[in-house]
Structures are given as structure tokens and as C-alpha cells.
Design brief:
The chain is α/β, with parallel strands linked by helices and 245 residues long. Helix content is 47%, strand content 16%. It has a seven-stranded parallel β-sheet, with helices on both faces. Bound molecules: 5-hydroxy-NICOTINAMIDE-ADENINE-DINUCLEOTIDE PHOSPHATE.
Length: 245
């Protein structure tokens, strides 16, 4: 974990779930964390708790579907802490449903947040990483992209679009920048709460209650990748419940 101390790390979707757990874990290991999400009150509370525990944190209300918000979050990191070591693109939505329901607005929202949100983060951070000569993109993807199942087509599509983009980015990035994808399985968070199809939501919640693992398991995987020496680029990590088929 020595390679985490002092690093400046942006985490999107830090107001709950995996993002919050990752922020707490990295801050406890000496990272200076910059938190983004739409619910600013949660971010403020988390920032205060990290600071009271002796860590360093800053936050800004951020909607990742707005390019200017990602630009602002990167600017905040540079203003407050003078550099940017890693961008964790974690904000995401799983508005899953069968295609026949034609929940087109849900499809669009997932594309806006899960896909365009990541691209806007790349657009904001890449020039900074190039200027510095170092930087690390970490994307939170999904096992839904590895095992394709009904109702998750669009969700998995957004995650696998990022998987493809990340591989090209890795190849273009050259020897100084790192690109990591972390794919969680079922994790105990509020992820299912935003689902709009009541039957699918009930199914997912029942499965969650049976097998989900704590978000700290994902935080540790992210920390493992960030904590490697600069010449070690961890590509893909999959962390799922042992009981997940
Ligand atoms: O979910 P949840 P997770 N702009 O709902 C934020 C992936 N994953 O922690 O804006 C900015 O507790 C939202 O903040 P707020 C999943 O696809 C999970 O489980 O304040 N932020 C909140 O902080 C996602 O990529 C599971 O509402 C936005 C956060 O996103 C990542 O893990 C399984 C936003 C969501 O927290 C974290 O999800 C899997 C926006 N427009 C993949 N919209 C799982 N939990 O089982 C949302 O395979 N957020």
C-alpha cells in the first residue's frame, strides 16, 4: 500500500456503495481523495469523516453525464492537491429490464452515465496525465459484461463499451499511463434501488440478500491496482461472490 500514500485520486459515484467504500479505504491508506456525485450532502459528510480521521479529501457536486462537471472535478483536484494520480470512474446505473418493455429513457440514461460519463472523465483527465507524465484510469465495470444474461443487455453493453474503449486507451496510452478495469459481481450497495422494473428489482434484491459481498471487497481490488509500482499495469480484475454462478 506504500504506493497509495500521497496519491491524489478522484472517485466518481462516491456518495454511496462501492465509491464510498473505495474513498474510505484509499483515504485510510494515505490517499488524498476527491469525491464526485450528485448528492452533495453525502459527499460533505464523507469528506468531514475522512478529515476527522486524519485523512485528506475534497468534494464537488458532479453529474457525470455533464462534461463540464468532470472538467470541474479534475480542476478541483489540481487546485487543492496540485496533481492527479488516478481517476476512478465508478458512477453507474443498472436500469435493467427486458427489451420488449422499450424503456428507452432508461437505456439513454445508462448510456449517458455508464458510457459517456466515463468518456467525459477520460477527456478531463487525459491531458493532465499527459502533461504530468503519469496517471491511472480505473473503471468499475461489471460481471454482467462477462456473462451476458436476459434483461441486462443494455447495461452490459455500456460496460463492455467501456471495456473496449479502455483497451484501446491502454494501447494508445504508452509506457507512462495505466488502465485498469474492475468488474464486480453482486455487491451490497443501493445499486438495485434505482431499478425501474419492479419484478426485476425484486429478483435482484432477493439475490443480493442471499449472496452479495461487501463493497470493501471491491475497494481492496481497486487499491491493489493503484498500489502497484508505476511500471506494473493491472489490466482486469473480477471480484464476485463465491456463490455467484
Ligand atoms: O451502486 P450505488 P454501486 N453522476 O447505487 C452515483 C457497478 N456494479 O456502488 O449521484 C454522478 O450504491 C451515485 O451517486 P448520486 C455499477 O454499475 C455494481 O453498487 O449521489 N454520480 C452513487 O454514488 C457502478 O458502476 C454492482 O446518486 C452518479 C453511485 O453512482 C458501480 O459498481 C454489480 C450518477 C452508485 O452507487 C458502483 O455502483 C456490478 C451521475 N449521473 C457492477 N448516477 C452491485 N452493486 O452489485 C449515479 O456488476 N451516480
Amino acid at each position: 500500500m506504500d504506493n497509495i500514500t500521497g496519491k491524489v485520486i478522484i472517485i466518481t459515484g462516491a456518495s454511496g456503495g462501492i465509491g464510498e467504500a473505495t474513498a474510505r479505504f484509499l483515504a485510510a491508506h494515505g490517499a488524498r481523495v476527491v469525491l464526485g456525485a450528485r448528492r452533495a450532502e453525502q459527499l460533505q459528510t464523507l469528506t468531514e469523516q475522512i478529515t476527522q480521521a486524519g485523512g485528506q479529501a475534497a468534494f464537488a457536486r458532479t453529474d457525470v453525464s455533464q462534461r463540464a462537471d468532470l472538467t470541474g472535478l479534475v480542476e478541483l483536484a489540481l487546485e487543492r492537491f496540485g496533481q492527479l494520480d488516478a481517476l476512478i470512474s465508478n458512477a453507474g446505473l443498472g436500469l435493467i429490464s427486458p427489451f420488449d418493455e422499450l424503456r428507452v429513457e432508461d437505456w439513454e440514461q445508462m448510456i449517458d452515465v455508464n458510457l459517456k460519463g466515463v468518456l467525459y472523465g477520460i477527456a478531463a483527465a487525459l491531458p493532465v496525465f499527459r502533461r504530468q507524465g503519469f496517471g491511472h484510469f480505473v473503471n468499475i465495470l461489471s460481471t454482467a459484461g462477462l456473462q451476458i444474461v436476459p434483461t441486462m443487455g443494455v447495461y452490459a453493453g455500456t460496460k463492455n463499451a467501456v471495456r473496449t474503449i479502455a483497451e484501446a486507451l491502454r494501447q494508445e496510452a504508452g509506457p507512462q499511463l495505466r488502465v485498469t478495469n474492475v468488474s464486480p459481481g453482486f455487491v451490497h450497495t443501493d445499486f438495485a434501488e434505482t431499478m425501474t422494473n419492479p419484478e426485476v428489482k425484486a429478483q435482484i434484491l432477493a439475490r443480493h440478500d442471499q449472496i452479495a459481498i461487501p463493497p470493501e471487497a471491491i475497494a481492496q481490488a481497486v487499491a491493489y491496482a493503484i498500489g502497484q509500482p508505476a511500471n506494473v499495469d493491472v489490466g482486469d480484475i473480477v471480484v464476485r461472490p463465491t456463490a455467484q454462478s
